[in-house]
């Protein structure tokens, strides 16, 4: 698997670890719905 080159200034798709909310943003610190941590969907969970 290849690592994705991320540019922190570009919008990307993020998903909430708890409720599954998906947003397009530059780097959200927490979910807008429940306040939980977000992850970049381009980054594998391994």
TrEMBL record:
Per its UniProt entry, which superkingdom is the organism in?
A: Archaea
User: Could you tell me which NCBIfam families the record lists for this protein?
Assistant: rubre_like_arch (NF033497)
Q: Which Gene3D superfamilies match?
A: 2.20.28.10
Q: Can you say what this protein is called?
A: DUF7129 domain-containing protein
Lineage, uppermost ranks: Archaea, Methanobacteriati, Methanobacteriota, Stenosarchaea group, Halobacteria
Which residues does the UniProt record annotate as the domain DUF7129? 10-42
Q: Where is the chain membrane-spanning?
A: none
């Amino acid at each position: 698997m290849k690592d994705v080159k991320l540019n922190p200034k570009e919008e990307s798709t993020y998903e909430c670890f708890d409720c599954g909310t998906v947003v397009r943003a530059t780097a959200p610190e927490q979910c807008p719905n429940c306040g939980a941590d977000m992850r970049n969907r381009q980054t594998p969970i391994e």
